[in-house]
Amino acid sequence: MIRLKHQLTTEHKKDAEDCIEIYNKLKEIGDGKIWESNWTSLTDVTFKGFPSDKRTYKPSDVGYIFLKGIR
After folding, report:
1. Where do the domains of the chain lie?
2. d(CA 12, CA 17)
3. pLDDT at residue 49 in the model
4. Is 7 exposed, middle or buried (0-12, 13-18, 19+ CB in 10 A)?
5. Count of CB atoms within 10 A of residue 28's CB?
């Protein structure tokens, strides 16, 4: 969530907002827990590489379908 909040200040703001919506719904249906298997199937992450630890998140194709269903 920290990385997603930081991503809100970049040009990838819309992707971050979508991922936060996915995160919040997973937390709601998972009784406050986010299972990694669910998160990784619904989002794609781009790792910027070393020495940086920056990552950019966006919904996967399945994630966009999930968003459409919860909206």
Report:
1. 2-70
2. 9
3. 80
4. buried
5. 10
Q: Which helix (H) or strand (E) holds 59?
A: strand 55-59
The enclosing H or E element of 55 equals: strand 55-59
Number of residues that make up the chain: 71
Which H/E stretch holds residue 57? strand 55-59
Cβ atoms of 13 and 34 within 8 Å: the answer is no
CA distance 53 to 40: 18
List per-residue pLDDT tens for the chain, 71 residues long. Answer: 999 999 999 999 999 999 999 999 999 999 999 999 999 999 999 998 888 788 999 999 999 999 999 99
